[in-house]
Design goal:
This protein is mainly alpha-helical. Helix content is 80%, strand content 0%.
Length: 521
C-alpha cells in the first residue's frame, strides 16, 4: 500500500507539473504526460499494467459525461450533419479502410481483426486538441465540431469494436449479423440514455442540497453505462445522450450554488483522470514492444504503415467534403489526435478465440494502435498551436466580447422590466425596490460603456479598456482588505471560525463574478 501510494503521489506530481508547464507554454499537457510516461517506462520503476476494463468502466464514462455536460446541444443541432459525418460516417469509413487494408496486405490478419484495430484507432480524442485550440483561439464553430465529434465518435467506435471482437471470437459472424448488432446497440444506447436523463431530472425536482446533487451527478455516468451494458446496448452512447439532455436542462433544475460546486468537482475529476491515463499510455511501451518478437520487421512496418495511412490520410480528404474552408479543414485534421479511447479499446482484444487457441495478431495490433497514439498526441499535439497561428484560423475576440455583453445587457434589461412585478409579489418596500433598480441600471450602464469601447477600438486593440482593468484590480484589492479584516476578527476571538468561513465564501463568490476571463469581455 505504501508503494502504491507513493506511485500515485508521484503521478499526481507529474500531472501538476505538466499542467504548469502547459499553461506557461503552448505545449499540450497530454503530450507532456505521454512523454513522461515513456520516460517512466524506461526507468527502474515497476510497470503498471493498464486494465482496459477499468478504463472503459471507471474512466471513460465520467470523462464523456463531463464533456457532454458542458457541450451545447443547440450548437450540435445547428451543425448536426457535419458532426454526424465526422463522428459516425468518418469513423466507420476509417475503421473499414484500416480493417480491409490490413486484411488484404498483412499476412495473418483476418478481416475481423483488422476491423477491430480500425475501430480502436478511428475515434479522435479531443482532449489535447481542445486544450491547445481554445488557448490558441480557434473559432467557436471549430470548437463545436471538435466537441461534437469527440462525444459521438467514441460510441460509434466502441460499438463497432464490440461487434468485431465478437466476430474474432466466433469466427463465423456474417456482415449482416454484425450490422444488425451495431444498430441494436446504438438504438438501445440512445433509449437508455434518455431514460436515465429523465430519471435524473425527476430526482433534481426533489433534491435541492448541493452535496446530494453532486453525489447524483457523479453516479449518473456509471448508472447510464451499466444500465446500457446490462441490456447489451452501447454504454458510452447512453452516457453521452444522458449528459447532453441533463446539461441542456440543468439551468432550470438546480441552483446556481449547485452548478458552481458541480462544475468544480467535474473539473478536478477531468484533470486527474485524463492525467493518469495519458501517463499510463506512455508507460505501456515495454508491454507493447515485448510482444513483437514473433513478427518480422517487414510485417510490422507494413501493418504500421497501413494503419497510419488510413488514420492520417482519410481525415483531411473527408473534411474537404464538409463545407469547411481549406484552412479550417487542415486545423480540424490536425485536431484528430488519438488517445485514451484508442489505448483502452485495443487492450480489450481477446487473448484467445472461442476454440481456445491464442489470438495470434493481438500483439501486432496493440503496437499499431500504440504508435498511432504516439504519432498523433505527441506529433500533432506539439505542433497544433503553431499550425493554428500560422494559418491564422482564430476567433475574433472583440466580436465574441460584444456578443456576450449584448446578452448581458439584454438579460439585465429583462430583469429591470420585471422588477416591479416581482417586488409587488414579494412585498418589497420602496427603499429596497429603488436599491435594486439602481443596481440594475448601473449594470446596464457598465455594459453600455463596454460596448462603446469595443465599437471604438480597432481590431488589434485590447478587448478591455484601461479604466476597466483599473476598476477590476481595485475591486480585487478591496476584497483582499476585507479578507484580512475578517482574519483579524477571528484571531482576536471576535468571530468564530465557522462564521468567518461563511463570510469568506461570500467574498469568494463576489471575486468569482469578475474573474479576468469573465470581466475582460
Amino acid at each position: 500500500m505504501v508503494e502504491t501510494l507513493g506511485l500515485v503521489l508521484a503521478a499526481t506530481g507529474l500531472i501538476v507539473a505538466a499542467q504548469v508547464i502547459s499553461k506557461k507554454t503552448t505545449l499540450p499537457a497530454a503530450a507532456l504526460l505521454t512523454l513522461a510516461g515513456l520516460a517512466v517506462s524506461a526507468s527502474a520503476l515497476p510497470d503498471i499494467v493498464l486494465d482496459p476494463e477499468v478504463v472503459l468502466t471507471l474512466v471513460i464514462p465520467p470523462l464523456l459525461y463531463s464533456a457532454a455536460l458542458n457541450s451545447s446541444l443547440v450548437a450540435i443541432r445547428r451543425n448536426v450533419w457535419t458532426i454526424l459525418s465526422l463522428s459516425v460516417a468518418l469513423v466507420v469509413a476509417t475503421a473499414a479502410l484500416v480493417g480491409v487494408g490490413l486484411w488484404l496486405l498483412v499476412p495473418g490478419i483476418t478481416l475481423a481483426a483488422g476491423m477491430a484495430l480500425g475501430a480502436a484507432v478511428a475515434p479522435p480524442d479531443p482532449v489535447a486538441a481542445l486544450a491547445v485550440g481554445r488557448r490558441a483561439g480557434i473559432p467557436p464553430k471549430l470548437v463545436t465540431l471538435i466537441e461534437g465529434e469527440g462525444l459521438l465518435n467514441d460510441a460509434t467506435a466502441l460499438t463497432m469494436l464490440t461487434v468485431a471482437i465478437t466476430a474474432i471470437a466466433s469466427q463465423d459472424m456474417t456482415a449482416a449479423h454484425a450490422g444488425g448488432l451495431f444498430v441494436l446497440a446504438a438504438v438501445g444506447g440512445i433509449i437508455v440514455g434518455l431514460v436515465v436523463a429523465l430519471s435524473i431530472r425527476l430526482v433534481q425536482r426533489f433534491v435541492h442540497d448541493s452535496l446530494l446533487l453532486n453525489i447524483v451527478s457523479l453516479a449518473t455516468p456509471f448508472v447510464a453505462y451499466l444500465a446500457a451494458e446490462e441490456v447489451h446496448a452501447s454504454g458510452v452512447l447512453a452516457v453521452v445522450v444522458a449528459a447532453l439532455v441533463i446539461g441542456h436542462h440543468t439551468r432550470h433544475a438546480i441552483s446556481g450554488a449547485s452548478r458552481l460546486q458541480t462544475t468544480a468537482v467535474w473539473r478536478l475529476i477531468d484533470l486527474l483522470l485524463e492525467g493518469f491515463v495519458f501517463l499510463l499510455i506512455g508507460e505501456q511501451l515495454p508491454t507493447v514492444v515485448r510482444g513483437l518478437s514473433a513478427y518480422s520487421g517487414t510485417t510490422i512496418a507494413l501493418a504500421v504503415g497501413v494503419t497510419l495511412a488510413g488514420v492520417l490520410l482519410l481525415r483531411p480528404l473527408w473534411l474537404l467534403t464538409t463545407g469547411l474552408s481549406a484552412r479550417e479543414a487542415v486545423v480540424m485534421s490536425w485536431a484528430g489526435t488519438r488517445g485514451v479511447i484508442t489505448v483502452a479499446a485495443v487492450f480489450t482484444l481477446p487473448l484467445t478465440i472461442d476454440s481456445g487457441e491464442p489470438f495470434q495478431s493481438r500483439d501486432l495490433l496493440l503496437f499499431c494502435a500504440f504508435l498511432v497514439v504516439l504519432v498523433t498526441v505527441v506529433g500533432q499535439g506539439l505542433t497544433f498551436a503553431p499550425l493554428v497561428r500560422k494559418l491564422n484560423v482564430v476567433a475574433d475576440p472583440a466580436a465574441e466580447a460584444r456578443l456576450r455583453n449584448e446578452a448581458r445587457e439584454g438579460s439585465t434589461k429583462a430583469a429591470l422590466s420585471q422588477l416591479d412585478r416581482i417586488a409587488d409579489e414579494e412585498n418589497l418596500d420602496d427603499e429596497g425596490r429603488e436599491m435594486l433598480r439602481r443596481e440594475l441600471e448601473h449594470r446596464i450602464d457598465r455594459y453600455h460603456r463596454r460596448l462603446d469601447h469595443l465599437d471604438e477600438s480597432d481590431i488589434g486593440d485590447a478587448v478591455i479598456s484601461p479604466e476597466q482593468t483599473a476598476a477590476m484590480t481595485t475591486r480585487r484589492r478591496i476584497l483582499d482588505v476585507e479578507r484580512e479584516e475578517l482574519l483579524c476578527w477571528r484571531d482576536a476571538g471576535r468571530l468564530p471560525d465557522n462564521s468567518m468561513r461563511s463570510l469568506e465564501h461570500e467574498l469568494d463568490h463576489e471575486e468569482h463574478s469578475f474573474r479576468p476571463h469573465r470581466e475582460t469581455d
